[in-house]
Every structure is written in C-alpha cells, then in structure tokens.
Amino acid sequence: MRVYNFSAGPAMLPVDVLELAKAELTDWRSSGMSVLEVSHRGKDFVACAAEAEELLRQVMGIPADYRVLFLQGGASGQFDAIPLNLTAPGDTVDFFNTGSWSKKAIAASKRQGLKVNVIADEAAGNYTTTPAPGSFAATPGAKYLHYTPNETIGGVEFGYIPEVEAPLVADFSSTIISRPLDVSKYGVIYAGAQKNMGPAGLVVVIVKDELLGNARPDTPSVWDWKAMAEADSMLNTPPTFGVYLLGLILKWVLDRGGLEAMGAANKAKADALYAAIDGSGFYTNPVAKDSRSWMNVPFVLPDAALDAPFLAGATAAGLTNLKGHRSVGGMRASIYNAMPMEGVQALIGYMADFQKNHG
After folding, report:
1. Considering 171, 225, 294, 323, which one is annotated as catalytic?
2. What is the CA radius of gyration of the chain?
3. Got the DSSP string for 185-220?
4. What is the pLDDT of residues 104-123, one digit of tens each?
5. What is the residue-level pLDDT of the chain in tens, covering all 359 positions?
6. Active site annotation includes 171
7. Of all helices (H) and strands (E), which one includes residue 52?
8. Quick one: which H or E segment has residue 266?
C-alpha cells in the first residue's frame, strides 16, 4: 500500500516515475542490463546524462552562460566546495543566517579561513522570520552573498530574491523545480536531489561561467567546478541512478505543464494546509506569515503530550513521517512536487478528526 509520505528528505517521488523506473530496471534501453549496471562511460549513459542536463536547462530556463554539474557529496559537501572555488583564505563573504542550514554553511566557510560577515541574522525571531528587503547592507568587496531560500527544518522561506552587487549563492535543495526561478539573478545555485529531483546521492550545481577557474590549488578535483565542467561531470563515476531518475522526473514536470503549473499546484497545497492550521484554534504554525514555506510546513499541537498519539494515528491513517525535526519539535509536513493535493486534504481531514477527539 502506498502511503502519503511527508518526509523532508529523502522524500516522496512521483508514482508514475517509480513505475517507469521499475519497468526499465532489468532491461534499460534494450541493453539487457539495468541502468544501475551500465558503464557511465558507455554511449547510452553519456546520452542519458546529456539529456538530463538539457531537460533541466529547458525546465528551469538556464541561460547558455551557465554550467550544470552533476556531483556527489550532497549540498553539505558544497558548503566547503563553494569557498574552495570562489575564494582565497582571508577573503570576506556575506551570509544571511535564517536557520539550521545557514548555520552549517557559515561554519564551513569559517573552516576555510574566510572572514564571514552575517549581514542579517534572524536569531531575535528564533529563526521564524526572513530579513526584510533592504534591511541589510552588503560588505564592500565581499566575494559573494550566500543564503538559504528555504530552511527545510524551520519551514522559513524567502519571498524575494536579494539584490546585491556580489554574486548571489543559494542553497535551493528544498525548493528547486517547485516554481519558476530567474536563474540569471544568481552566480551559483546548488541543490541536493532528495526533495524534488530524485533519490539521495546527487547534488546539482548551476554555476555561471565567469565564476569557474578560480579554485584554490588544494581543492579536491571532484569539487573543482572547472575540472568537473570540462569532464562533463564524469571526472569520477557519477551517481548514475540519480541522474537517470532526474531525467524521468523532469519529463514528468514538463508533462504536467512545467514550473508554472508546479508553482500553482504547490501554492494551492500550501495555502490549503496553512488555512486549516490557522483556522483550527488548535494547531499553530510558528513562522511569520510573510516567511512561510511552500514546501515544509511545521505545526505544533496545544500540548506536547498529544504528539505521540497524533503521530500514531497519522501513521495508521497512511500519513507518515510527520514528526518535526528534533531541534524544532511538533510536526512538519513536507509537501514537495510529488505530494498530490489528495495527500494534503487527507492530512487536513485527519487533523480535524484528531482535534474533535482531543480538543
């Protein structure tokens, strides 16, 4: 039985994609082998990777002067790879600190010997807010501004793209391909695949050509963006199954109307769930309304003693992985592209029933 999986990642994948992958698993492209078994150097997989890149360019509208890299190490690996590729020790970089993933990226930059200026820190609001546009001042000479458009753990999301002169670097792990995005506003976009783009193990880096070729001499070759770009992301063995599934998911997105349609569907799901929370008089969402995530919706019950029975009942109803992150508590519903409106409505219905029985 399929359940509605509200996990923050690895997350729910489209059933249509899983069924197609299942059908192709033992004999991919009439090769007599699985895509898990073929050589990444063979012409079939090279074509598969090239197709995935072209589909991503088409879906996201990636300009020609950007390179697309299929790497490993997750977004966390890029916390170190970004300063290795864009800075020298002692350089200054700017950061917004809006929660857990921002903090990890900041710590990695400090390890790389950088002067880190946190030009907006939302600690005063317990990381339930985002900095207002124009409320921050960029540091003159900063190599880049890094921010996390969506904090998966806290359910906090920017409603705008920051405007700065330095290259903008952004961790889009939990919002990539969830709605239209102007890639040209960014120097670097990076994202782990395990939310909207496929299974864990693949990280996508989209980097402007002019930022390549500046890696420190001691940068590991697999994290040197220029070296990987020149090798079509195959300097080492790429995460082949992740690349293959990314291609299937991108076709699925296009079949459903592209990012305009994805964005409309995702907004409708989020609006419905927030309306149910706000109107309940029982559940609450801690995030400022102008900073609420479309993808990760935390909510708390009036008494933490109700958490365990809520989760047990939800699991019995086929609504899984709703427990909030340990640093936040309560519940968290992650409603990425693959989560249908029916799943959100099922959760809303369960929440209403639980309130009747425990309110």
Report:
1. 171
2. 21
3. G-SEEEEESTTTTSSTT-EEEEEEGGGTT---TTS-
4. 999 999 999 999 999 999 99
5. 899 999 999 999 999 999 999 999 999 999 999 999 999 999 999 999 999 999 999 999 999 999 999 999 999 999 999 999 999 999 999 999 999 999 999 999 999 999 999 999 999 999 999 999 999 999 999 999 999 999 999 999 999 999 999 999 999 999 999 999 999 999 999 999 999 999 999 999 999 999 999 999 999 999 999 999 999 999 999 999 999 999 999 999 999 999 999 999 999 999 999 999 999 999 999 999 999 999 999 999 999 999 999 999 999 999 999 999 888 889 999 999 999 999 999 999 999 999 999 98
6. yes
7. helix 43-60
8. helix 258-280
Model-wide pTM > 0.90: yes
Name the amino acid, one letter, at 14: P
Q: Is the dihedral of CA 347, 351, 271, 335 positive or negative?
A: negative
Nearest-angstrom CA–CA distance, 56 and 65: 14
- Helix-, strand-, coil-residue percentages of the chain, each rounded to 5: 40, 15, 45
- Catalytic, 28? Answer no
Tokens representing residue 325 in the block: 């992150």
Distance (Å, rounded) from C-alpha 191 to C-alpha 164?
21
**Active-site option among 28, 101, 225, 294:** 101
DSSP state of 132: P
What domains sit in the chain, N to C, each tagged with a CATH number?
16-255 (3.40.640.10), 257-358 (3.90.1150.10)
- 101 annotated active-site: yes
- Write down the catalytic residue from 103, 195, 269, 323: 195
Q: Which residues are CB-contacts of 7 (< 8 A; sequence separation ≥ 6)?
A: 320, 321, 334
Question: Can you tell me which residue has the tokens 């920051």?
Answer: 162
